[in-house]
Amino acid sequence: MSKCKIDILDSTLRDGAQGQGICFSLEDKLKIVTVLDEIGVAYIEAGNPGSNPKDMEFFKKIKNVKLKNSKLAAFGSTRKPNIKVEEDNNLKSLLEAETEVTVIFGKSWDTQVTDILKTTLEENLKMIKDSIKFLKSKNKEVIFDSEHFFDGYKNNKEYSIKTLIAAKESGADVIVLCDTNGGTLPSEINDITKDVVELIGGKIGIHCHNDIGMAVANSICAVQAGVCHIQGTFIGVGERCGNSNLSTIIPTLKFKMNYDIISDKIIEELTSKARYIAEVSNIPLTDEMPYVGNSAFAHKGGMHVDAVCKSSDSYEHIKPESIGNNRRFLVSEVSGKSTILREVQKIFPLITKDSKEIQNITNRLKKLECEGYKFEGAEGTIELVIRKIIGKYKPFFELNHFKIIGEQPACNADFSSTALINITVDGKTEMTAAEGDGPVNALDKALRKALEVFYPELKDVRLVDYKVRVLDSESATGAKVRVLIESTDGEENWSTVGVSRDVIQASWVALVDSIEYKLIKDMERKMKMYF
């Protein structure tokens, strides 16, 4: 079988919007359309204009935006049973959206027709035919989504195939086989899709859900079986367990199957674009996500790190930079000297593997991990530990004392805590106070407020993430906790960690490390400017 050109339809803004916790604003949708167009997907399924006013408003706004690479598609259903196609409000909405492409779904599972639509099998075929012919008469490119196709095929093959024939004979440009329930196995996808490609011909597509974790595998199997059109969402968002993850499918097609799916230049931006879409969607991109996740090219075991340094393909299936990601070496109790050395040499290049400092640092990190510290993703704290052991550390301030006052119920809805802090810098004492939404927020504000008198650059620093992990839950309220915070100055992000049986103390340790790391980096930058 010769390779066909694979078209990608992204449904982040339609099917992805049905995922839990996702609610796109009009501005969010416009931002994501821009990124998807830059990536170069063939189609952007941007919403269902007949389902809600927000989607219709979006289609009105997007008319003024000229896309360079992608076609915009509006989504809807076939006409309702027993009404004229010209009178169907959903189809009217599709025309009002004024997109070049329309995607309509129709039932291919006989029991869905009789039990959900409450109509006859013959009427459902007429609904498919009438709807597609109507849209084609309006010069639309029509993609027909055969809903529940695989379940329908397994239940009543003859009828499910009839729905596809009805769509093809009515002029559908693409016929998409949908694993709507997401429960079909790759072997079934392969066999059934091959059968359809042989029986129906033309351009066949695939739309998979991830309810058994097979959406990506099923999409790839469908390509191997002959489909030329794949639907999915970026970072796999979608209803229930999500959809086929295009940020996994696209590089797999390009690097593993040699499909010229997107340009080499754009594939090198895949990680940043996937993370941008995740940010706009307000959905965390999991560290373990293939290709684009923060841990996709992270190495922790000492022997693994050593092997990757000698030959990257020993534990990496592609070069991380080919999709815009980075190789990371994680420092932990299972790290070997090679990992520790690489971290140390980032700061002190002349240190060698045989230096006594390397063994001292390794021992110290392992001791801290025994106490509950975890240094993965806490680069700020790692650097400070290294500096302290090598003797290249000088504290930027001295804490005299702090006090936190809580007020419940809070008189001010925005602030429930007040922090008082007294510090000394170069013999000068500063005492200040700040209110915050909780004790840690108040302490963070008070500390930075006091230090800004001496270090004005801290005005740009803010917390962007705060996580607490209970380490020994059986100790109940006396349990040890680990606090991981992420900070930013608007240009760079960094993380630090603190551990204590007191969550305030653990937070304080992480906050101090965060500020000292920032001040050290600023000091280094200033020194480079002069030398």
UniProtKB/TrEMBL annotation:
It catalyses: pyruvate + acetyl-CoA + H2O = (3R)-citramalate + CoA + H(+). Transmembrane segments: none annotated. One of its GO terms (biological process) is L-leucine biosynthetic process. It comes from Clostridium gasigenes. Pathway: Amino-acid biosynthesis; L-isoleucine biosynthesis; 2-oxobutanoate from pyruvate: step 1/3. Residues 6-267 form the Pyruvate carboxyltransferase domain. Belongs to the alpha-IPM synthase/homocitrate synthase family. Keywords: Amino-acid biosynthesis, Branched-chain amino acid biosynthesis, Isoleucine biosynthesis, Transferase. It comes from the Bacteria. CDD domains: DRE_TIM_LeuA3. This is Citramalate synthase. It is an enzyme of class 2 (transferase). InterPro entries: 2-isopropylmalate_synth_dimer, AIPM/Hcit_synth_CS, Aldolase_TIM, Citramal_synthase, LeuA/HCS_post-cat, LeuA_allosteric_dom_sf, PYR_CT. Its EC number is 2.3.3.21. GO terms for molecular function: (R)-citramalate synthase activity; 2-isopropylmalate synthase activity.
